[in-house]
## 1
Amino acid sequence: MTAKEQIGLDRRRGLDGSRILLGVTGSIAAYKGADLASRLTQRGALVDVVMTGSALEFVTPLTFRSLTHRPVVTRLFDVESESSMEHIALAESSDVIVVAPATADLIAKAANGLADDLLTCILLATRSPVVLAPAMDGYMFENPATQENLARLLSRGYIVVGPEEGRLASGQVGKGRLADVADIIGAIGLALGRNGDLAGRSVLVTAGGTQEPLDPVRRLTNRSSGKMGYALAEAARDRGAGVVLISAPTGLRPPYGTQMIPVTTAQEMMDAVARQAAETDVLIMAAAVADYRPSFAADNKIKKSGKAMTLVLEETPDILMEAKALGLIKVGFAAESQDLVVNARQKLEKKGLDLIVANDITAEGSGFGSETNRVTIIHRGGKMEELPTLMKSEVAHQVLDRVVALVSARPKGKG
Ligand code: PMT
């Protein structure tokens, strides 16, 4: 077995290796469908694009063909096609179908089971999950006819992402803009993960660096960007878990399909974890929680006095220590600048963890702020696995692989 196989690095995850059918309909937002096709292809998905007749008025098949490196299908009866039953073949071979943008017309046809072109035939014939990303004029979206059609599709298990509020092509400001492409990709991950190895489980993730106020404008904090925690939340969602993300302030977009609870201080994070714990199977603490806070936060901005100033700090509550007695699976992180393994092991034992993910924050491309991380995973029984430098999304899946093994030994139910 190669080193890659040993840690499951060759395994296909989420979008990577999936077959996605992207339907594009006639909306001014059709050009954003090209961005979506490109990003899905870059993530390793095989993307088949089906364009409706009116989509051809806005963008060309060549655009999608160039981005996906695959033929683009536009007609129900294509004499050039290898398969006489193209719509059935496409409907059956796709892991997920996403229509982005989806016009009011497409939504109405799908809701009523019409099948007068290739895309609507596919929607009627498929048994795969369907994601719709509506884009239209605000009044068309608000119209009870559109709302009833969407409600009907939701009740049939469709995932509807967006639309967002904002300036529309008509000049009107309202709800009708295509969802952000990151959210559409999140919805595809959610759809693909419905039967994943964490389906039916609930995972609580903490992320970011807590901020401890000194006065109304100053805070003690650290360099955590939240990337590691957000990657864990997305990976758990893509494997079917219900995810609650308790996040200290970050500049990141909340991951689609997760429940986000924003907090600022260590105390707020601890209170939020305590409130969620009863509903949770797994707690993963990737947050960089302040160990100390100012013992006194001034009500008004502290003024310069011309003299040296001494800050008195007190310890914050330790969230993992408080969770020690709870019967959850507990995963901690250890951010260390020296004696990585010794210090991480001590934390694992002291805090009663099942796993600890030790990151050497002095290593290149590891720890705070980077897109990658270099970690050693230490198990409660003493087993230790040193991983190479990996994207944080892959580190997240590596951690979850170990969590799945622990979780599968327990009955479902809390989440
Ligand atoms: O956010 P990024 O920029 O992507 O960076 C990722 C990261 C470096 C922040 C992340 O990988 C990481 O290491 N997070 C834990 C950082 C940390 O606080 O480590 P620690 O060794 O101080 O704490 C050990 C564990 O106890 C952690 O799981 C921590 O969340 C938890 N803790 C710490 C203090 C406290 N008061 N309560 C806690 O529960």
## 2
Amino acid sequence: MAVYGIDLGTTYSCVARIDDVGRPTVLRNMEGADTTPSVVYFESADSVVVGQSAKDATVLDPVHVVQLIKRDMGDVVPREFHGRAYTPEEISARILRKLVEDAKATGGKEARDVVISVPAYFGLAERDATRKAGEIAGLRVLDVVAEPVAAALDYGALDGDEERGDRAILVYDLGGGTFDTTVLTLRGRELTVLCTDGAKELGGSDFDDRIVVHLVERFRERFPDVDDPLSDPQSETQLRKDAEEAKKALSFRERYTVRVMHQGRVEAVELTREKVRELTGDLLDRTVDITRRTVELAAEHGVSHFDEVLLVGGATKMPAVAEALRTQFGFEPKLHNPDLAVARGAAIYALDRAAYIVSSGELPADQLPVVPETGLTHRPYQISTVASRGYGIQLVERDTDRRYVFHLVHANDPLPVSVTDEFYTTHAGQRSVRIRVMEQAGVEESEELAHNACVAEGHLAIPPGKPENWPIQCVYTLDSSGLLGVVAVEKESGEKLELTVQIGGMTPDAVATARDALSRQRFS
Ligand code: ADP
Ligand code: MG
């Protein structure tokens, strides 16, 4: 059995393993492609289609097709198909299943031990859901790794001798549906995610949309009396597909012609790279603005020079991306298989983890993952990261009774972190306080209740006869893997409330049942 790295992407996924000479290799799917659309088509109760064919099925049977499921990871939002409800974990598990089944068929080795990549901004619930997706797919998830870390591993940005001193790396990741920028620093073998920022709804598919709109405009100019092609789902799906093809082709050529067909009419629209750049300029500008924000945040953390700028995500193949970074920041970005780098890096990291597990005796001998004979010595990276979200406590304003959230840990605080603060009872004779641990839900920290999710709660007893403003001490600790623990103490009695975050995800039993259900479905 081999150790695999999997990039479970919002729009495309990819799987890689370490070959016999110790290099990461991407395994093609059965259709012969390096990446597989993260699309699942529930064809019937016992048959599921994943990948390009599922994407194609959108034309004929859109209600049974799921796209962009990664955006729902960590939420409890099951969807029903053919009389059965599927959680986001279960839907993602079907993508993973397709990837490893195909990898086995094309690469020849059964997958059991895997590392799955996750965006750096993923919180606890999303990370947990990703692990569970792997378990449902019948895999043993050795670990999850942040996507920019995986990409940096693949780019070799972390290699080399430690005498070179501290290094800083900026990762610009423009995928199909999301954009992230992350700054990493490397000191010896100590890798730190310094800060991360991005937009969850900005990616290559927005570029496709602009092309679609342009194609439709040209078609309607030519045939003013014909219906809008966008009013017909079939024509629309075809247009989106053609627009994406055109966009991809224009990364390598200057012009490309799309034939727009609708109601028996055809208009050939010629697109140039320049035209697409003009149609999508503001989208690229948004990524530049966010990158600038990240660069400024890094400067506040003392990093003002980047040894490497890495391009990740399929959409960075558009030459306009590197060009914008060159002209706006003077960067010399590296572009090398940007849509495969995360899976390849996850495979490198998987090898690292497997070697660690082997050497630490964490598992019984008969369950050890097989580490290829690479002849390499193993020196694991110490990966430390920042909090991906803010964490706080729900408080009540005494005079107005307004409820709000006070954050003790903030996004981008270096991990591990431990913060102690004191809070006070609202009235005399109060016998208990309710401790509600809140996780920031949106991109920005906000004290509004609605912008936070309650991730754990409990009651702490207070001795009788205490005046108002009686103090309660709270300690928030976030360890280096991002696990949150909260301890509230009433000092006089020594009464203590210890909370660990209950992640809203699936229970081990539910995971086992889901794994069973998956194994009974046919895949293609
Ligand atoms: P994800 O966002 O799921 O991680 P990828 O990193 O593979 O996925 O990025 C997918 C996006 O990259 C899609 O919008 C796709 O159209 C785009 N893409 C892939 N190849 C090219 C290319 N040659 N030129 C421009 N865009 C591309
Ligand atoms: Mg990606």
